[in-house]
Amino acid sequence: MSSPDGCPDTAPDGVDGAGIGTAAGDAATDGIRVSVVLPAFNEAATIEGTVRTTVGTLEEFLPNDAFEVIVAEDGCDDDTPEIADRLAREDDRVLHFHSDRRLGRGGALEFAFERAAGDTLVYFDTDLATDMGHLEELVAKIDREGYDVATGSRWIPGDEADRPAKRGVPSRGFNVIVRTVLRSRLRDHQCGFKALSREAFEELHEAVEDDHWFWDTELLVRAQRRGLRVAEFPVEWEPQGDSKVDLVRDVFGMGSQIVRLWWQLSVSPRITRTRTVAAGIVLTVAALALMTVYLDPSAVLSAFEGADPVPVAAATLVYLLSWPLRGLRYRDILTELGYREKLGFLTGAVFISQTGNLVFPARAGDAVRAYVVKARRGIPYPTGFASLAAERVFDLLTITAMAGAVLAGLLVTDGTSVVAAAVSANVPGVPPAAVSRAIQVAAGIGVVAVASLFVIVATARSDRNYVRDVVSRFSSDSYVDYVAGVIEEFAAGVQTVAGTRASFARVGGVSVVVWTLDVVTALLVLAAFPAAIDAMTVTQLVVVGFFAVSVGNLAKVLPLSPGGIGLYEAAFTALVVGLGGVPAAVAFAAAVLDHAVKNAVTVAGGVASMIGFNVSLTDAVDETAELDEEAEREGSEYPSDDD
After folding, report:
1. d(Cα 213, Cα 105) in Å, to the nearest integer?
2. pLDDT digits (tens, 9 = 90+) for 410-419
3. What does each C-alpha distance from 365 to 172, 257, 346, 537 come to in angstroms?
4. pLDDT tens, 115-133?
């Protein structure tokens, strides 16, 4: 989509202009006060009547040269583009913006508004469900009364629209949630009959992130939060045909957008490092305290006293061996990004960042590594963060593959019934049928996870976007597009180190070895407890250990506590008890000792590296926090390599 005066250099791919008539920026547009945008997706049956009705209504209260009507045609696959072209040729006040792909309702509106000529920007649904007799009032709210934003409402008390239940109930529910969660004072956020001033649009449009149905709501909520004047007035409204809103898919998508906007407006501004650290400490203490409610602390202490120190010492050595491999993997990733560094330095940088993750919640230590390689070796911040992202992606892929492979194996070999019987025997009161169903669901998720890994890797290794191809088969709305974008970020992380097949295999192979050593460490710790050895055969010990450690590490992905303390122990204990029949106190003691061994090695290596590199952990966190603030002010995630 591009404006008729030719702005293809600023237009998104697959979008062009078919505008006929006066264009924004021409001298003839000086008198245009009002720009009406009609978002159109497959509206061949109605678009001509809508355009002619709109032009006729505007002529009743505006001079003929004071307005323009823009058809923002959003990737239609019917005759809407041809009809819009013809209408634009017949009337120079009509413009047509065409897109070869869907931008989303909000995306199409935003693109058209950016290129519109008027100071008063209006849009409404092309089905003309709202009585056009209200158009003059809508325009007047902005043009004459000085409001920043105006919206029609179907739910103002005493003027409620008569809506079918299948539309009215979800609409009322949605508006109640928005009013409650996002603290909006408006009654109707999704009425497709709105206007705003040019100044309000310029202030708001970059902040509005959604590009589909939630765009209206986010615009109104952000306008109120910024203190803009918002007018809501009752309109006569009558449903026209079937709504294009999918009451399952789109309502779910908008629900997630409500949560996202609530987090951005109400939670994120209040998150400071001090509060994050305090919350992390509280969560850690609470997690450990809750587990002791169900465990006898004296039994846990007794299990510790009975542990054999020899396997624990062996576990410490095994875990220590994994660290040079972590440094080797990081060196391979940086090499693919064009930087060659010594193994010792990079191993120390990894030690420091992981120590930071133990001290600070929300994985603040990850950013510390970018600071270390920047400060000590001059590696630019963008490269440091890109290398971290690639490493995290391979970690997550490897852990997910381990857990998913175990679950998929259970599903394929019908091992769910065996595991269900074991869990029922080990956890009294839980029927085998319920456990079996739960495992089957989990196993199905495991199969999907493993399949997703193949799709992600295939996308990373190919010019073709397999992720987008697969996801777009189900839907093309903004929420699904958002999900696809998140998955594509993982693919991009893989692609960062997939420049050659050899580098991809090397980094992936080292990741498998690193996490296998992590599992072996836990197995040796379990072997230190006689009760664990007595409860399981060697084969059971290996299977349960791989699964418990993989799931425990996946639980640590949630950045709720420093180093995942409490989360790891809870997941590890539940699986070792449920699958292995190990007494709960012993399983918990093993989980705590396993985590303690790994954290002790990490902290010792981190402290030694900080002394050797003369790096202050708190200074590094402060430095990266300032970097984030600077990037946010500049409107980008991270400064450029030239900064």
Report:
1. 6
2. 666 655 555 5
3. 44, 29, 15, 39
4. 999 999 999 988 888 889 9
Specify the 3-state DSSP secondary structure of 295.
coil
* 225 vs 182: CA distance, rounded Å: 10
Cα distances from 234 to residues 159, 327, 464, 582, in angstroms, run 6, 65, 50, 66
pLDDT of residue 554 exceeding 60, the answer is yes
Would you state the pLDDT for residue 631?
A: 44
User: How is residue 268 annotated by DSSP?
Assistant: G
Among 314, 308, 319, 317, which residue's Cα sits nearest to residue 532? Answer: 308
Under a CB-based contact definition with an 8 Å cutoff, are residues 178 and 225 in contact? no
Token pair for 158: 């005493």
Q: Which of 216, 250, 366, 594 is catalytic?
A: 216
Name residue 391's amino acid: E
| Structural element, H or E, at residue 68 | strand 67-74
Tally: H helices and E strands in the chain: 24, 8
Q: Catalytic site residue 216?
A: yes
* Whole-number Å distance between alpha carbons of 69 and 47: 12
Question: What would the pLDDT profile of 455-501 be if each residue is shown by its tens digit?
Answer: 666 665 566 666 666 666 655 555 556 556 655 655 565 566 655 67
- Tokens read off for 297: 């602390």
Read off the DSSP letter of residue 28: G
Which of 598, 601, 593 has its CA nearest to residue 527?
593
Contact 465, 488 (CB under 8 A): yes
pTM assigned to the model? 0.54
Q: How far apart are CA 597 and CA 617, in angstroms?
A: 21
Question: How many alpha carbons fall within 13 Å on the CB side of residue 204?
Answer: 27
Give the whole-angstrom CA distance, residue 185 versus residue 471: 36
Cβ atoms of 594 and 524 closer than 8 Å: no
pLDDT per residue over 91-104, tens digit each?
Answer: 999 999 888 777 88
Instruction: Tell me the pairing of strands 34-40 and 149-153.
Output: unpaired
Quick check: helix, strand or coil at residue 256? helix
